[in-house]
Design a protein that fits this description.
Strand content: 25-35%
CATH class: Mainly Beta
Shape: elongated
Radius of gyration: 16 Å
Low-confidence stretches: 145-152
Distance between the termini: 33 Å
Mean pLDDT: 90
CATH superfamily: Transcriptional Coactivator Pc4, Chain A
Helix content: 25-40%
Length: about 150
């Protein structure tokens, strides 16, 4: 579910809330069941988006997360690791534990159940598909780099 005001855009579902501060170009990710809020700049948010996209492309990992394969039937030593750009955020999943560990270079590691990760995944994909959200990202990325991406 999206809400938007003059100063903020937010997306929420049963697992997480994602906020974009329009004035400062900062992001907040509130993980509900873990009762933690992580504040990210645009580079950190971008790394999280790329990590989520890359994890979605790993079919074997997603088969476990989406319960197409029974995690308890996998090899005990099986481990999936996905790292975002420059290791800003990394994912480690041991399917038979039915958990995903997200580690941010901020010194924060979060343990997520598969359902929590699915909720985070859906939230980020929903935000990335939203036109207003993308416009704000483009505005902040253009301002940070000093170049107009639309002109290239």
């Amino acid at each position: 579910m999206k809400t938007s005001s003059q100063y903020q855009i937010s997306f929420a579902n049963a697992y997480a809330d994602l906020y974009l501060d329009k004035e400062n170009g900062e992001f907040a990710l509130d993980l509900r069941r873990q009762e933690i809020t992580i504040y990210l700049n645009s580079n950190q948010y971008g790394a999280l988006v790329l990590l989520i996209q890359e994890s979605n492309e790993n079919e074997e990992l997603m088969d476990y997360i989406l319960w197409k394969k029974d995690p308890l039937q996998c090899d005990d030593s099986q481990l999936f690791e996905v790292c975002g750009p420059d290791h800003v955020v990394c994912l480690a999943c041991t399917p038979n534990c039915e958990r995903i560990k997200l580690t941010f270079d901020l010194g924060v590691a979060i343990d997520l159940a598969f359902a929590d990760f699915q909720g985070l995944n859906e939230l980020i994909l929903e935000a990335q598909a939203d036109l207003e959200w993308r416009r704000e990202l483009l505005r902040w990325n253009s301002g940070e780099s000093g170049q107009d991406f639309q002109a290239t």
